[in-house]
């Protein structure tokens, strides 16, 4: 036949092959192995060309190599050779091929959400517990602060453990222990006040490792120019935990009872552990799931030491430098304001504006929800400024200044709020702007002391926890003695302003240790 003779022709001219196109498509199976009858419309044959843009089929017959370009109107070339489905599956697989570091940060964000939700449960259930047991406002402050008694001790130890054993293992043990403490809380409340305070202190002891673990995992798994966004995602989960806890707890209280929210969140913690145990490593170099290209990207974007030498960090050296104290003071101020709002916001709306518990939970939840979004925005903005060429020192100072001056002004204005809507709006602004601190002092630990970041985080967090204890208890006494939140809000605002000045004088983005 004409087509067959054309394929075996020794002439370089392919015109005889092209002229036999009508015979070629009538074969049961052609030399090119195309199945007949697939095209329902006439096949458009084009002359062979050796331009780089056109796709070509290479066919070798009788020692000769022919290049043919075949297209069918309305039918993809891949369908003719049976490769369409394979390419579609490959494309789908590529879409679902999420980089391993994003899977890690998603799990971290989930556990940070659970971490804060477990804390908030007590902030809501303390209202019916106070009514049941007849607690005063000052004793409410003691109950609220009992979580911090254990938290203050585990921060330093937990930070050192994270530096030595890695974030994965320490985080796993922390989640297991605080889930157990959460489960035991309603039993302890019914047993005795001493038992309740002891269980809450144990709960704080277990949760003290969460933030150092998160910070260290972010530094191991992300290059420097993505680290602020990673921390922003993790802390977004942390703040969403407030929203989930504040909204779900009143519902569980009214339907199941006091034990309901504690059983729910402790079960979620154990469920999270099953995924964490087998899916994450402390260092991307030890992960069987991370690709070589992703590992190269992570390592190329690092400017810090990957791990410590296992020795106990030099405490005297860390405390001898002003940048360390800038971080410590920033943590003190951040925790002071944060825990006042976290512990007292539902009570504030309930007492000042006389709203019921469910309404107070909704008013309290809105600021935390916006804080989750603004925290990620702060991280993305910080990373974009670094990519644009701004120094780490300038970026850290800008972010922290917004994170302190903004909340200070908002809290001063809160003293003049006359409606719960206005108060919620001002608290929303305060907390949204305070989340910029995540791209300030919270990341600065990795900047100045990458080798001892967990330990430095623990020191700063312990100091901040002590401040949180004082502010949480102090708010209760201020309310009881003065009958108003205004004086304490003014003190908190002043602390924000003073620390912002200190930060801009002594903070640095350069490595110090």
From TrEMBL:
InterPro entries: MFS, MFS_dom, MFS_Na/Anion_cotransporter, MFS_trans_sf, SLC17A9-like. Residues 104-511 form the Major facilitator superfamily (MFS) profile domain. One of its GO terms (molecular function) is phosphate transmembrane transporter activity. The keyword Transmembrane helix applies. Keywords: Chloroplast, Membrane, Plastid, Transit peptide, Transmembrane, Transmembrane helix. It is found in: Plastid, Chloroplast membrane. Its main location: plastid. The chain crosses the membrane at residues 139-163, 325-345, 365-386, 423-443, 455-479, 485-506. It holds the Pfam family MFS_1. It is a multi-pass membrane protein. GO terms for cellular component: chloroplast membrane. Inorganic phosphate and probable anion transporter. Belongs to the major facilitator superfamily. Sodium/anion cotransporter (TC 2.A.1.14) family. This is Anion transporter 3. The lineage of its organism: Eukaryota, Viridiplantae, Streptophyta, Embryophyta, Tracheophyta.
